[in-house]
């Protein structure tokens, strides 16, 4: 990533489109391309093995995952610097971000009526974010 694109952001932006409704397609592209990178200096096969611990961070909306860790990372990088978020990625719109959804956040979202879904997955994360978008369209 660093050698070809100069930064993780540069690599991410290769799959990003400002016209996408949300960050899902960019996340899918990022994960797919990251997992396809040459890892021959570290693994004889040149590919990241299925058992590699770092795969824990490479979940994809294509697999139905909520992508909690990647969505948290994006919030830190994209949202304006407020003492919590860094705001150093200027090319991604905060309006496209998806809520970092886990078991606890999904329970609260269900309790307050942001979702009726029972399965904690990408569809639930998009639905909850859509409801939050009504309150804050620029940064749901």
Describe the protein's architecture and organization.
The chain has 6 helices and no strands. The protein has helices at residues 2-5, 8-13, 24-35, 68-78, 103-111, 122-133. The two termini are 29 Å apart.
Quick summary of this structure?
With 140 residues, the protein is mainly alpha-helical. It has helices at residues 2-5, 8-13, 24-35, 68-78, 103-111, 122-133. The radius of gyration is 16 Å and the shape is globular.
In terms of per-residue confidence, which ranges show pLDDT below 50 for 5 or more consecutive residues?
none
Radius of gyration (Å): 16 Å
Give the biggest sheet.
Answer: none
Give the mean pLDDT: 95
Number of extended strands:
0
Specify the structural class.
mainly alpha
Distance between the termini: 29 Å
**Residues in β-strands, percent:** under 5%
Quickly count the helices: 6
Order of helices and strands: HHHHHH
Gross morphology: globular
What is the helical fraction, as a range of percent?
25-40%
List the helices and strands and how they pair.
Layout: H1 2-5, H2 8-13, H3 24-35, H4 68-78, H5 103-111, H6 122-133
Q: Can you give keywords for this protein?
A:
single chain, 140 residues, mainly alpha, globular
């Amino acid at each position: 990533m660093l050698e070809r694109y100069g930064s993780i952001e540069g690599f991410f932006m290769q799959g990003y489109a400002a016209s996408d409704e949300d960050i899902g397609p960019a996340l899918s592209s990022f994960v797919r391309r990251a997992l396809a990178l040459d890892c021959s200096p570290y693994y004889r096969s040149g590919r990241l093995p299925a058992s590699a611990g770092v795969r824990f961070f490479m979940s994809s909306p294509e697999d139905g995952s909520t992508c909690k860790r990647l969505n948290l990372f994006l919030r830190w990088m994209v949202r304006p610097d407020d003492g919590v978020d860094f705001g150093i990625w200027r090319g991604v719109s905060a309006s496209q971000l998806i809520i970092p959804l886990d078991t606890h956040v999904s329970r609260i979202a269900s309790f307050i009526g942001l979702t009726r879904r029972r399965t904690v997955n990408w569809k639930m994360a998009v639905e909850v974010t859509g409801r939050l978008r009504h309150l804050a369209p620029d940064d749901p």
